[in-house]
Write a structure and sequence with these properties.
318 residues, alpha+beta, Arc Repressor Mutant, subunit A, Trefoil (Acidic Fibroblast Growth Factor, subunit A), 3 domains
Length: 318
């Protein structure tokens, strides 16, 4: 009897011994993954038949059937049944901004006690300066309580602090100055943003990053806990084509929204902070005032590859 006939006979025999309801349960229990594996192995069986290795073929089918459980979170669209080779699959979902799939697969990996692979992916995206990592962190944080635990356990601690909307300080790597808003109000009731030469602990340098999801991206409104104003870029440019940075009572334009790109320097996770409207990164000027403070601007030139000059640390305010 050929192997194909043997399989057909086995299926027919099984259907005779099970009721229709039982067969339906069996079929429903078997995931789409099992079906795809059977189709894949069909050609292998044909080859094995030709070299008279029927026993090996049956063993292969049994192994597939044993592993063909439904996907771990009940979502068969994005199954991961083994960690091998998964890094590229999950990373590709993140890079292509398929965050629903990426979040689902990441949860599956945690449930299968394969969290070490999540760490590998996170570190890889940090090394490659991918803002997509922040997008994924937001989706995980917003996805379910269980996926929040992934951000807490496998991402650098600052991600948990940001998405918990804790008060944080934002410090320039080059000058070691924390962003603050000045005391004086201009004609628009805005305050100028500075890097403070002396303060790194008071509410005056405290901020909350308030996330919002738009166009399949996470952006942040950066809110001063002391001044009750939002960080924005002004519309005017200076001789270097840079925009000034201010605090505003409102946050109703893209000039008030920012996104983060992670970067690693000396084993520390830092961020380039970009304005959504102008796609320019936050920086401090080179002139120092009488208090030792520096004005904040956007950079009209590229800051990429220069974290020692333009990256910022974000840490809990204490």
């Amino acid at each position: 009897m050929s192997l194909r006939m043997l399989l057909e006979h086995s299926i027919a025999s099984l259907s005779q011994h099970l009721s229709k309801a039982s067969m339906k349960i069996v079929l429903n229990f078997t995931s789409l993954y099992f079906v795809s594996c059977i189709l894949f192995l069909h050609n292998i069986i044909e080859i094995l038949q030709e070299i008279n290795m029927k026993t090996l073929a049956v063993l292969a089918l049994c192994l597939v059937a044993a592993s063909a459980t439904p996907s771990i979170d009940g979502d068969d669209r994005y199954p991961i049944h083994a960690p091998s080779g998964y890094e590229d699959i999950v990373t590709n979902a993140i890079i292509t901004r398929n965050y629903e799939a990426a979040a689902s697969m990441t949860v599956q990996l945690k449930r299968r006690s394969s969290g070490r692979y999540i760490t590998i992916i996170v570190n890889r995206l940090i090394r490659e300066n991918k803002r997509n990592l922040c997008d994924l962190a937001y989706k995980l944080w917003d996805y379910m309580d269980e996926s929040q635990e992934i951000v807490k356990e496998y991402f650098p601690v600052i991600f948990r602090q940001i998405f918990s909307e804790n008060s944080v300080k934002i410090i320039n790597k080059r000058d070691n100055l924390a962003i603050k808003l000045g005391d004086a109000l201009d004609s628009d009731n805005d305050r100028v943003a500075y890097g403070d030469a002396n303060d790194k602990t008071s509410d005056n340098v405290g901020w909350k990053l308030i996330p919002l999801w738009d166009d399949n991206r996470v952006y942040f409104k950066i809110f001063s806990v002391h001044r009750n104003q939002y960080l924005k870029l002004g519309t005017r440019i200076d001789v270097d084509n840079d925009h000034g940075v201010y605090g505003d009572d409102r946050a109703d334009t893209h000039r008030h929204q920012w996104y983060l790109k992670p970067v690693e320097l000396e084993n520390q996770v830092l961020f380039y902070i970009y304005n959504r409207q102008y796609d320019q990164a936050l920086k401090l000027g080179r002139n120092v005032d009488s208090d030792g403070d520096r004005r904040a601007y956007s950079s009209s030139s590229s800051v990429e590859g220069q974290p020692e000059l333009y990256a910022w640390s974000i840490s809990i305010l204490n």
